[in-house]
Amino acid sequence: MKLSDDDVDLIRASYVRISHDLPHAGEVFYAQLFQIDPALEVLFVADVDKQAGKLMSTLGLVVSQLQNWQDLEPVVEDLAMRHLAYGVHAEHYEAVGKALHAMFEEILDRDYAPSMRAAWDRAYRALSDAMIDTAYRARDTSF
Question: Which 3 state secondary structure label does DSSP give 28?
Fold first, then answer.
């Protein structure tokens, strides 16, 4: 993943802002996700509050390792395969990206500047592309 230093700084600054209340950020994310695509709610058989905590923890790990893709890559690959096992389809990643942006917009309000949104978009696209490639490449070659 290639992000500029400015992108990394913007992403980290925004995460620090939401990290003051990660449970709330997780709640907002899932509320947004289920509003964007209500059909995704059936994928969450476990407690959504626990899932929100896992999401925010994973997001924090990703943010901390943005400049160390080689260390982050195995984590992303494992995450991709787990999501495949949960029933996530490639087209679901778009709704997740929209929900991520919507979460930041709701929590940060006007502080979610266009430059910050663009930085998150680049990072999320790189991560989701890697996850989709990993999950569906592995699935296509398993026959």
Answer: helix
97: CB partners within 8 A, 6+ apart = 121, 124, 125, 128
| Spans in the chain with pLDDT lower than 70 | 138-143
Place of tokens 């395969």: 81
- For residues 9 and 12, give the distance between their C-alpha atoms in angstroms, rounded to a whole number: 5
Report the SS3 class of residue 47: coil
The pTM is what? Answer: 0.89
Q: At what angle do helices 5-18 and 114-140 cross, to 10 degrees?
A: 100
Rounded Cα distance, 75 and 111, in Å: 30
Tens-digit pLDDT profile for residues 124-140 = 999 999 999 999 875 55
Longest dimension (CA), the chain: 49
Instruction: Please give the Cα distance from 135 to 99 (Å, whole number).
Output: 21
Q: Give dist(CA 43, CA 6) in Å, integer.
A: 35
Token look-up 């790990």 returns: 61
